[in-house]
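Inverse folding, one chain.
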C-alpha cells in the first residue's frame, strides 16, 4: 500500500482476484479470464495492471485448489488468509481525484462491498461519500473560475454527475447504517 493506505496497482489486481473468489469457487482459467475482462472493461488494457499471476497468490497461501489438484479447470477457492487479505484490501482508502486506477478500486469496492460486515460496509460507503464530496468541491471550485465554452459545459456535466453520485452514496449510507 501507498503511505496514504491506498492500493498499488498490484494490490488492486489482488483485490479483483480475491474478491471474485468471495463469490464462490471458480476454475483457474475462468478466474483469470473474468478478472482480465472486468479490469479491461473498466480501464482498458494497461501495462500497469499486469498484476502477479494466480500462481503467486497460490504460493502465498491466499488461494488454493478446491480439490488439491492443479490445472486450468480445477476450481479455486479463497483460503482464510486470502479472506483476511481481501478484507484488508477492501478497507483501504482511495485517492482523489479519481484516475483510472482509483476508478477501478472504486468499482471493485462497490462490486464486493456486500462481502463485508455491516459495520465495515457502512464505513466504506462513508469513505466513498467523503471522497465524492471532496471531488465535488474541487470541481465546483474550478467551475467558479469563470471558464467558458466547452470546458464550462464539460465541468457542468462533471459537477452534475458527481452530485448524483453523492446523493446515491448518501442513500446507500443511510441503508447501511440501518443494518449496523
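Residues assigned per position:
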Amino acid at each position: 500500500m501507498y503511505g496514504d493506505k491506498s492500493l498499488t496497482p498490484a494490490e488492486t489486481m489482488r483485490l479483483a482476484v480475491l474478491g471474485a473468489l468471495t463469490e464462490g469457487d471458480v476454475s483457474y482459467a475462468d478466474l483469470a479470464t473474468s478478472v482480465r475482462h472486468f479490469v479491461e472493461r473498466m480501464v482498458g488494457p494497461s501495462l500497469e495492471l499486469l498484476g502477479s499471476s494466480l500462481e503467486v497468490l497460490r504460493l502465498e497461501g491466499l488461494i488454493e485448489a478446491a480439490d488439491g489438484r492443479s490445472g486450468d479447470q480445477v476450481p479455486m477457492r479463497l483460503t482464510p488468509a486470502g479472506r483476511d487479505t481481501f478484507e484488508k484490501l477492501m478497507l483501504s482508502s482511495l485517492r482523489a481525484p479519481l484516475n483510472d486506477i482509483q476508478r477501478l478500486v472504486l468499482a471493485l469496492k462497490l462490486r464486493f462491498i456486500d462481502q463485508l460486515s455491516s459495520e465495515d460496509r457502512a464505513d466504506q460507503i462513508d469513505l466513498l461519500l467523503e471522497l465524492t464530496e471532496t471531488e465535488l468541491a474541487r470541481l465546483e471550485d474550478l467551475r467558479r473560475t469563470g471558464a467558458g465554452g466547452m470546458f464550462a459545459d464539460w465541468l457542468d456535466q462533471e459537477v452534475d454527475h458527481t452530485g448524483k453520485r453523492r446523493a446515491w452514496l448518501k442513500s446507500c449510507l443511510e441503508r447501511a447504517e440501518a443494518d449496523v
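The longest helix spans residues 149-179. The chain has two domains: 9-91, 100-179.
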